[in-house]
Input
Amino acid sequence: MNDRIPSQNSQYHLEEMDGEVLLYNPADTKTVYLNETSSLIWNLCDGDRTIETIATLLEECFPDSDSSITDDVVATLEDFANHGAIEFR
Output
């Protein structure tokens, strides 16, 4: 499962409005609010990196994290997929 490769839906755009970061799809006015970590995950969804690679990169960035980063990455990517912001291959 962690070998799946997420890629961004090109209709979604990263926007910053009033200090909040969000993904916005102007075609159907869908908006997904992002925190700092989910914004990083979005930027790592380049169509080349696997879920495992994304989780490893975040673990390197946040070595003192108490939570399971892999679980957080998977949950965030599932949320992106449910909104249509990414696709897996």
